[in-house]
Amino acid sequence: MGAISILFLVIGETLVILSELTLPYYLAKDKIIVKKLGVTFCMSLVMSIAGAFLLLAFMYGYLSYESIWVVNVVSTSMVIIIEPVIAYCVYKNLPGRSTCKGLVLAFIGLMVAITL
Fold first, then answer.
1. Where are the alpha helices (DSSP H) in 1-116?
2. Confidence band for 96, pLDDT divided at 50, 70 and 90
3. Side-chain half-sphere of 57: how many Cα atoms within 13 Å?
């Protein structure tokens, strides 16, 4: 059940970050108000689906690890790891040296939280 919670966390966090980063990109890009409203509505739906995945992830994670703190660390680490990847895909900007160091440390923290 722990693997299911991590899978749900990855899906949920990815969808949340995707909607957070995609919405401002397209709102700044398009000048037509109807397109802006359509993108906002679509990203709101994506965010709702992501919320359902995150709720399931925390529920299954708590049941399998018997500690909400393990799930919290995994969730936070997922954000730190996934967000720069999605930001690069959307905005085409490379992370700086400090960000890369943070990614490595987050990955190490994630592995420690999962294995202990």
1. 2-29, 33-65, 68-91, 97-115
2. confident
3. 25
Q: 46 φ, ψ to 5°? A: -60, -40
Task: Compute the distance between CA of residue 112 and CA of residue 20 in angstroms, rounded to an integer.
Answer: 28
Q: Which residues contact 94 (CB under 8 A, 6 or more apart)?
A: 88
pTM over 0.90: no
Calpha distance 57→59 (Å, rounded)? 5
Q: Are 89 and 17 in contact (CB under 8 A)?
A: no
Joined together, the tokens standing for residue 14 give 């990815």
Phi and psi of 31, rounded to 5°? -105, -10
What is the tens place of the pLDDT at every residue in 29-88?
A: 877 888 888 889 999 999 999 999 999 999 999 998 888 888 888 888 888 778 888 888
Which pLDDT belongs to residue 104?
85
